[in-house]
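Troubleshooting: if your tokenizer reports a length mismatch, compare your output against this known-good record of 333 residues.
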Amino acid sequence: MIVINATNVNDAYYKCMIQFRRHMYSNEVIELSTRGERRVKLAVPVSTLYKYPRERVLFDETRDANPFFHFMEALWILAGRNDVTWLSQWLAKISEFTDDGETFYGAYGARIFKDRQLYKVMERLRLDRASSRAVVAIYEPADVNYSGKDLPCNCTIFLGIDHDRLNITVANRSNDMIWGAYGANVVQFSTLQEYIAFNVDAKMGWYCQMSNNAHIYPDHEVTKRVLGDIQQPEDLYDPYCATPALRPYDMFTECQDPARWDLDLQYFMDGSFDKLVYPYFKNVAVPMAEAHSFYRNDFLKPALELCDDIVAEDWRIACKVWLQRRINRRKVA
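Known-good structure output:
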């Protein structure tokens, strides 16, 4: 097993891409074909351990991750939803990864909250902080016979509290390390971790993802650029380390009520912004939603200006840079 000890997602992403470059150069990889695409996987699983999982925003210019989609998808998961309509606001082509264009078969949120599973697990941790039985199942027995597009990649979440810190380990059956592990997954599960930590009155601990089948798609243009660009330690762009004052914005504060926070989440999902109470939604989620709305309507410069209202500095930087790239491309065209 390859173990990647990382401070945050930017560090993990860089170290894993170095592993792929090294193993591909020495021909220590396995080549496969998935749905007509060439796939290269490492010969052994990869375990990524994040020391600071709240530093979840990937800034790499070559990867050009969509911060709006990553942020909103994490909230969509916390809302326990499986619909395509809401999520497609942030990434139109997301429907291509569903069977019917209407719902996601393997939606993490719908499965995590199914039959109140997560609430029961959190109650277990509240009653027994030393419990090693706090497990959330995503993969289900019926999935063995499923042959559609949306089989869950992340299968199981293990939770535990040590020294008043909530640690989580996520077991993944098959992981695209560029778009999955260090793109969507780290935002999804570190956000879920922060949500659970608040609900069980614990601090954030480490987050580990075990990727059993760690792979990339080498013929994608982005993949080619990523592997070509990352060569030296100084190539790592990480504002979290470069700017000591940059710290993730708290999803919660001590005085907040978890039930009211959940209600705010529903109000935000429904577009009832005037009913919002808590800062995370009013000062982070809403400005991001409004900026993206301008972007969708092809008003790039106003969208860029609206990003200044995002109080979460890491998300603000990522959104502004992402939009600026698109403005620059338009100028070139």
